Automatic annotation (TrEMBL), chain A:
Domain of life, per lineage: Bacteria
GO cellular component: plasma membrane
Organism: Blastococcus xanthinilyticus
Protein name per the record: Putative spermidine/putrescine transport system permease protein
One BP annotation, GO: transmembrane transport
A Pfam cross-reference name: BPD_transp_1
PROSITE patterns: ABC_TM1 (PS50928)
Topology within the bilayer: Multi-pass membrane protein
Organismal lineage: Bacteria, Bacillati, Actinomycetota, Actinomycetes, Geodermatophilales
Record keyword Membrane present: yes
From TrEMBL, chain B:
Species of the source: Blastococcus xanthinilyticus
The UniProt record lists the keyword Amino-acid biosynthesis: no
Residue span, ABC transmembrane type-1 domain: 66-273
Location relative to the cell: Cell membrane; Membrane
Signal sequence, start to end: none
Key words of the record: Membrane, Transmembrane, Transmembrane helix, Transport
InterPro entries referenced in this protein's UniProt entry, alphabetically: MetI-like, MetI-like_sf, Sugar_ABC_transporter
PANTHER family: GLUCOSE IMPORT SYSTEM PERMEASE PROTEIN GLCT, TREHALOSE TRANSPORT SYSTEM PERMEASE PROTEIN SUGA
PROSITE patterns: ABC_TM1
Protein name (record): Carbohydrate ABC transporter membrane protein 1 (CUT1 family)
BP term (GO), one: transmembrane transport
Primary subcellular site in the record, as a coarse category: membrane
CDD domains (alphabetical): TM_PBP2
């Protein structure tokens, strides 16, 4: 075999290994989700069915799904405008001590969420703040670095000339923001909102520590089922339920972003 | 009298405040509250008095936890960096670019770590999918989940974070590497020379930043080690959680001490990464 052909074969094998690395952990999830009976050492389930889905529904997957969606949506609805405003200001290089301000806004990335949740929990209990409000407040703070970074990059590449033209043509400040600025950064806004949604959707430790077990989200059900024995089918169904909505959102946000770049 | 309009700097400050105020308030309040609790100044019962008792009481577990947490973070970040770099190279290669690998890595990003832990558990457990595929009996299957080497925990972090590293590095390489690579190839540089002298130096800052973010995340993350790890010894987040939720109220200050130690460790890692980034930039 010639050297380029050997290199080509090695590269194909390497790529196959990399694809396997990314996909392999998801294969048992997909199989277990539809397995009614899958005893060792069978490589495939002996009986297919919906036992996992029934167990998941009985464990309260429906309500947990709604609560997780709501939590993600609320975190996104709060953290996206905060990040957009901060990103706009930081990209304009007019913020006094801009580097320090950026460092503070990014600090939640460096801090362990359990440490912040643990410190805040004691305080929230003393101040009698409702648990759900505390969870949202903390998760918004966790999400702000992502939305700020995304929007700062978007506004840095954004041409303010369009806004100046709109102002010259007589558009008011709000009209300019609504009709010119926001449509231009819409793909980045969608990306920032997606990342903030993920923070709320995926969180476990903040919901457990600050929520005190009263806010049952999908990750809490996954953890409870995964810690039990003999509940593999239920774990798989709950896990897939936790994966599919954000993956679908990612595809939508990705196609929005591509449309935005083409336009 | 007309109200004075804020100038551009005033307006920028007003725009940044709605994000800055909650971050400073929440992070500041949480850290101060944890510090007071750990130093005996805000006891849940009894009189406040400054002492290092909580740190002293937790010292043994704290030492083990620091070593274990750093070890898990280093091992998983190391694997994630190597695999993530390979993924990024394959996804941005000039010839035979793999769009599939790029898409698969992107789709791995939104999977919650807890779900990743559940999936790795189903894959690597005694009677898990991998044991079935390889036809190994549960009795002779190595204890990957809950074993002494924390294999399942490291595998989960390495899996998820390799996709993150791949995305960050591919983002940099996609925009800049092609033109430099072509120039180098025109000047006669071979495959390895291009990788060593063009691609890697271009990717280095992004690779280092992604590694630091992934390391700090792993250091402070609770659920994966709680689900796939063993009962003892405990990584720092698991230790803090157990102490904090213990029925013994006297353990709360110890939990705060562990939390603050983890925070200090994470900040040290960030500072070291920033220094290394600055040194990389200065070498150019």
């Amino acid at each position: 075999m010639s050297a380029p052909r050997a290199a080509g074969a090695a590269s194909r094998a390497g790529r196959a290994l990399l694809a396997l690395w990314l996909v392999l952990p998801l294969v048992p999830l997909l199989l277990w989700a539809f397995a009614d009976r899958w005893a060792f050492p069978a490589v495939l389930p002996q009986e297919w069915g919906t036992r996992g889905a029934e167990e998941a529904l009985a464990a309260g997957a429906g309500g947990a799904f709604l609560r997780s969606t709501l939590l993600g949506a609320v975190v996104a609805a709060l953290a996206t405008p905060l990040g957009a405003m901060a990103g706009r200001a930081l990209a304009s290089r007019q913020v006094p001590a801009g580097t320090a301000v950026l460092a503070v806004l990014l600090a939640p990335l460096a801090l362990p969420p359990f440490a912040v949740a643990l410190g805040l929990d004691v305080l929230l209990l003393r101040l009698r703040v409702p648990a759900a409000l505390g969870v949202v407040l903390l998760l918004v703070v966790v999400a702000v670095p992502y939305t700020t970074l995304t929007m700062r990059a978007a506004y840095a590449a954004h041409d303010r000339g369009f806004e100046d033209v709109a102002r010259t043509l007589g558009a008011g400040r709000w009209r300019t923001v609504r009709s010119v600025q926001l449509p231009l950064v819409a793909p980045a806004l969608a990306g920032a909102a997606f990342l903030a949604f993920l923070v709320g959707w995926s969180d476990y430790i903040v919901t457990v520590l600050v929520g005190g077990g009263r806010l049952t989200t999908l990750p809490l059900l996954v953890a409870a089922a995964a810690a039990a024995t003999g509940s593999e089918a239920q774990v798989a169904v709950l896990s897939l339920t936790a994966i599919l909505p954000p993956v679908a959102l990612l595809v939508v946000v990705g196609s929005l972003g591509r449309r935005g770049r083409r336009a | 009298m007309t109200p004075t309009r804020p100038g551009p700097r005033g307006r920028a400050l007003l725009l940044v405040l709605p994000a800055l105020v909650p971050v400073v308030a929440v992070v500041g309040a949480a850290l101060v509250s944890a510090a007071l609790l750990s130093l005996g100044l805000a006891p849940l019962v009894g009189e406040p008095g400054l002492s290092l008792d909580a740190y002293r009481a937790a010292a043994g577990d704290l030492g083990t936890g620091i070593g274990l947490s750093l070890g898990i973070a280093a091992a998983s970040t190391g694997i994630a960096v190597v695999v993530g770099l390979c993924l990024a190279l394959a996804a941005t290669a000039a010839v035979r670019r793999s769009r599939l690998l790029g898409a698969l890595a992107a789709l791995t990003i939104p999977i919650p770590h807890l779900v990743g832990a559940a999936a790795i558990g189903l894959l690597l457990a005694d009677a898990g999918f991998l044991a079935r595929l390889l036809g190994v009996d549960p009795a002779s299957w190595p204890p990957l989940v809950g074993g002494q080497l924390w294999v399942a925990v490291v595998a989960e972090y390495a899996w998820k974070e390799s996709a993150f590293v791949a995305l960050v590095v591919a983002g940099v390489l996609a925009t800049r590497a092609a033109s430099y690579g072509e120039t180098a190839a025109l000047l006669g540089a071979g495959r390895w020379a291009r990788l060593r002298y063009v691609t890697l130096p271009l990717a280095a800052p992004a690779l280092l930043s992604a590694a630091a973010v992934s390391f700090v995340y792993t250091l402070g993350s609770y659920e994966v080690a709680a689900l796939l790890g063993r009962a003892y010894p405990e990584p720092l987040p698991v230790l803090a959680y157990r102490l904090f939720t213990s029925i013994d109220l006297a353990a709360r200050p110890q939990a705060a001490a562990v939390a603050l130690t983890t925070t200090a460790l994470a900040l040290l890692v960030v500072l070291a990464a920033l220094r290394a980034l600055r040194r990389l930039a200065a070498e150019r």
